Amino acid sequence: MMDPAAETEMVTKWQELHKEGRFSALNVREYWRIKVPEIYSPQPNCNCLRITFDDELAQKLLFDSLEQFMCGGDPAQVYQMVRQLDNPPSLCGRVFKNGDPTYGCRDCGMDPTCVLCADCFKNSAHSKHRYKISTSSGGGYCDCGDKEAWKNDVFCDIHIKGQMVDSPQNPLEKIQPDLVERVQIIFDCILLYAKQLLTYEEGFSLPHDLEIRDSDREPTNLSNLYYTKDTYVTMLYNDETHTYDQVIQTLERSIECSQKDAVAFATSIDREGRCIVKCSSFQQCNQTKHLMEKQTSRGGGRPLKVQVMHTHVVAHQFFASKLLTWLHNILESAQAFRLIFSDIVNKDGGSIVESIIWLDTQMWKTARVQWHRLFISGMLMDQESKKMFARTFTKHYSKMMKDFILDDHDHAVSVASLGVQLFTMPTIAHMLVAEEEVLARLLNTFLSECEKKLKDNKLALEHRSSNTSSFRRIQYILYDLKYLLGVKPETWTLELRKGFLFGYQLILRLLTFMQGMDPMVRQVGQHMEYEPEWESAFNLHIKLAAVIPLVIEWAASDRIVLIKAYRMLMKSLGELCTEEMRRRYVRELLDYSVSCIEYNVAEAPVSIHLPLSRLVAGLTLHLDKYGLNYNSPEFQVTGKPSPEELMEPVLRTQVMIAQVHAQMWRRNGFSLINQIYFYHNVRCRQEMLDRDVMLLQIAATLIDSNEFLIHLLNRFNLMNWAREDYEINYLRGNDEDNMRQTVTMVEEYLQLVMTLVSERHTPGIGQGDEEERIKKEIIQLLCMEPMPHSVLNKALPEGTNHETGMEKVVDEVATFKKPAGATKGFFELNDQYYSHYNLFFYHYTREEQSKSEVAQRARKKTAGEEECCPPPVPPPFTVAFTMIVNILQCDVFLHILKTVLKRMSCAKSQSVSECQLQKVLHLIGYALHEEERYQRNKDPYFHFTTRAQKIQLLPLLEGLEGHARTTTHKDLLAWVLRKYHYVVSLSSESGSKNETSEAPAAAPSTSSSSGASASAEKKRRADQAQLRRQRIMAKMASMQQNFIKTNETLFKVENLTKH
Question: Which SUPFAM superfamilies does this UniProt record tie to the protein (predicted)?
Fold first, then answer.
């Protein structure tokens, strides 16, 4: 062994060579060639669980020598001098280790990834805010001082000092050039050495300049090292394929150790990423390797990764790992060292960074983590270095993710995990979108995997397929997409628009693959033989559901982007519409003839996955703020779907769910039931159920109200039910199952209509903001029962930052009752908000609806009130959606009310139910609420009571009073009658002035109108119906001609074949 004097001589020699300009990394590597194996080589037949090295000697010979040469004197004094040159740090940047506590502020954090270390948190204002404590899995760093991470209170008391420096200077300018040069040489040497050794796959020999050579037999102090160079180790590597138990059993059999030792080995392998399990001759180590591989490959599985390595290779790799830790500590100590490091890694276009990204999967867990920590501490603390790293990271993103797919380690120890550190910074994210086409890079990588799973141009995700794991791993890209789009730009540039729209186009392609995926066909005759896979599609949806609202936010923040995005979306939808899907037939009801799309939900495929259609709903809500609408000339694109074609896919889904409730799909198994459950579940409904309701409401504003209701009746297959002679000419009295299904379908139809006219708390549809929407949700939840904070918060949908917004509004609508004894504290709804209770709230499940009704009836009974739950007063629609209220006074709606009420009054009628009556009474209640609002606003447009006189609504309602079939809902009926008379009285009070300003289509105001006016009205409607029929027939003839022109060559071919 070398004595301390010899070590001092070596440092002196290096310094002399440096003065002469002849010193290089080769001199250091030559020294390491001998010293590293001497200190860090495992001894033959040692206890592999307790391998120890002489750390004191290693520090003196290996690390102290580096520091002495690098500093050119006493390292402690030089480090102190360099630290004093630092500007007071305004960024903390402390890198978290696995298990470190992290603190996130729920009030000020830009997103949930923004966290503080314990010291910064305790010295900041965030300790007085709503905060969340978590445990780090390692790899992240403290965001204190990062202005892009916090809305308020960016700095703690420690790092605020860094902001007080007026013009911070570059500390390198105050350091001697000779010191900077020596630091550069050592840093460069360490980085190249660590890169070479930690990615070194050859286990039997070292790089040529690090080998022990024959000439090293003399002097004698090397002879022992030379003669022991036939010592090898068996290295067992960690993977995420095999379980703890499998590894433990394999070790017990292969190296014949106790279970306790096998557990210790397995723990070490899991923690470090690899472990030496045997140190002996090559033959014995190789035999152990084959035994392990044989035992773990039984059954065709992937064997454990085992490698036989020379002890000298292991020694150098161990030292390289130690060097990275040493370098990390140096970088954290002073800004000057970080600047030098950044210059080195960024030279030659960042070749070192590129190499580590490319070779990341070749390293074991500890080595990977050390490199990642080094990049964080050395590059991500400086804005310019961070930008350069982000560009390199983006450039190699596709290769990195494809390597990750094939890798068998968790995402947390992959270099891909550094994406969160880069993409969550708005300035960097916007730069990458504009200049590096980052959205396109990410999405092209994701789509390349999706294309492998296409069937008939639709995604077909098979749960048990061999590449399920790879598709699950590639979905981490969707998290990176979410980070990139986390903050919408305040100012748009031409490059930013191009970059975003390029990525948006690929998002549309992905959504096109998903549109109509996992279609279901109703089973008839026999039960489904096996349950189809459905979970993978919903898992993909849940991840995409966090991205889609951000895409909408970005698109809606700029008029040009919104117009282009909407045109692209219309074009994508138009391409999915085939001639078969455009096939129509005419349906007639009353004096209305409507051209309906041919489709039978009970026989043809239907899918719950319709993300492309739902994106229309999200974007359409933002058109109005730019003075645009669906029919604006900006959106006239070839193949643009009509409003009927636009709503058709989501309407089919609603009908399928209604048929499931009518027990028509009972042979389709649990897969369908589970899908419908998650369709309504709080985790999925924002981008499923809620968007579907929005899209149907949008369609209701674009289609005549009577035609819209007929489209719905037709799709629900209720056209015959709506005829007055249904029970005489159409009802098959001997088919009880069919009758029961029809009754339920009518109930579901009325529920859908009620949802469309009453659900107005979505900002953009109703006149209310996001807080009003959250209040509505909380009120309906607390109408079931008082709830603890955790239960209530869990029942609310989360926003993009995993916040429900509950805390902002809950104290306004509810009172918190403190815990007493074993009872938890809970929120109880304030009395004045019980009037907002909506029995048919569309987010209620059937169980929740029943539970809430029982609770409210019991509350009213206790208070001595009527035991009924009338509809609440909804907020007014926005201007763009005002036309929806016309549904409540149109002819078809009134006909449906009349049909249900007349059949209810007939004791023998089979096609009606108490539930139908209850929903019809609620719909009448909404119409009366609406008319009252219009009367108070002196708006003559809405006259439900006047138009209802045509169907003799009031006599029909009064005729049901005391009827045996209405006993259950007698209180609700009484409420409706009182409300009706009250609204009529409001109308009469308005005087004759309003009579002249009524809508032209309004019926006469008294039931004693002359026969002449009645026949004139009838003739007018008949003429209108005739004109409408003519228009429809002309349109169909035009479509036929267009089809013939488009397929002219086809018709020519057919004519030739005939001749």
Answer: ClpS-like (SSF54736), Winged helix' DNA-binding domain (SSF46785)
Pairing state between β 584-589 and 592-597: antiparallel
pLDDT tens digit sequence for 990-1022: 654 444 333 333 333 333 333 444 455 555 556
Phi, psi at 360, each rounded to 5°: -55, -45
Continuous segment of H or E residues that includes residue 814: strand 814-817
CB 486 within 8 A of CB 111: yes
Sign of CA dihedral 948, 952, 954, 958: negative
Between CA 27 and CA 23 the distance in angstroms is: 7
Three-state secondary structure call for residue 761: coil
Judge contact between 696 and 617, C-beta under 8 A: no
Q: What letter would DSSP give residue 110? A: S
Please provide the DSSP assignment of 908-957 as one string: T--S--HHHHHHHHHHHHHHHHHHHHHHHTT--S--HHHHHGGGTHHHHH
- 326-380: per-residue pLDDT in tens? 999 999 888 889 889 988 988 877 788 999 999 999 999 999 999 999 998 888 8
CB-neighbour burial class of residue 911 (10 A; exposed 0-12, middle 13-18, buried 19+):
middle
Rounded Cα–Cα distance for residues 742 and 748 (Å): 10
Question: Do 816 and 849 touch, CB atoms closer than 8 A?
Answer: no
- Enclosing H/E stretch for 619: helix 611-620
- Integer angstrom CA distances of residue 510 from 394, 404, 475, 650, 993: 21, 21, 13, 19, 57
3-class DSSP assignment, residue 219: coil
* Tokens encoding 410: 């968790």
* Phi, psi at 980, each rounded to 5°: -60, -50
Alpha-carbon gap, residue 358 to 352, rounded angstroms: 10
Among 605, 621, 607, CA closest to 541: 607
Angle at 129 between CA 128 and CA 132, to 5 degrees: 110
Whether the Cβ atoms of residue 861 and residue 867 lie closer than 8 Å to each other: yes
pLDDT of 756 reads 97
Backbone angles phi and psi of 587, in degrees to 5: -120, 140
Per-residue DSSP letters for 526-540?
Answer: S--SSPPP-HHHHHH
CB 977 within 8 A of CB 958: yes
Contacts (Cβ under 8 Å, ≥6 apart) of 639? 570, 571, 574, 575, 577
- Tokens 């006599």 belong to residue: 955
Closest CA to 506 of 565, 419, 427: 565
Q: E strand or H helix at 750, and its extent? A: helix 736-758
The residues, ordered by sequence, that sit 6+ positions from 638 with a Cβ below 8 Å of its Cβ are: 571, 574
Residue type, 558: D
Distance separating alpha carbons of residues 97 and 136, to the nearest angstrom: 7
CA 229 – CA 847 distance, rounded (Å): 74
Asked if residue 770 lies in contact with residue 805, where contact means CB atoms within 8 angstroms, the answer is yes
Select from 1025, 905, 888, 892 the least CA-distant residue to 946.
888
Identify residue 24 by its one-letter amino acid code.
S
Tell me if residue 826 falls in helix, strand or coil.
Answer: strand
HSE, CB side, 13 Å, CA atoms: give it for residue 130: 10
Q: Could you list the beta-strand ranges (E) of 141-271.
A: 232-237
Encode pLDDT of 425-445 as tens digits. 999 999 999 999 999 999 999
* CB-based contact 309:197 (threshold 8 Å): no
Cα-based distances in Å from 70 to 67, 77, 333: 5, 12, 15
Instruction: State the Cα–Cα distance between residues 13 and 29, nearest whole angstrom.
Output: 14
Name the residue among 426, 491, 546, 484 with its Cα closest to residue 149. 426
C-alpha distances in angstroms, 466 versus 303, 453, 462, 469? 16, 12, 9, 7
Query: Confidence class of residue 221 from pLDDT cuts 50, 70 and 90?
Result: low
Residues comprising the chain, all counted: 1059
Query: Which of the residue ranges 189-193, 540-544, 996-1000 would you say has the lowest mean pLDDT?
Result: 996-1000
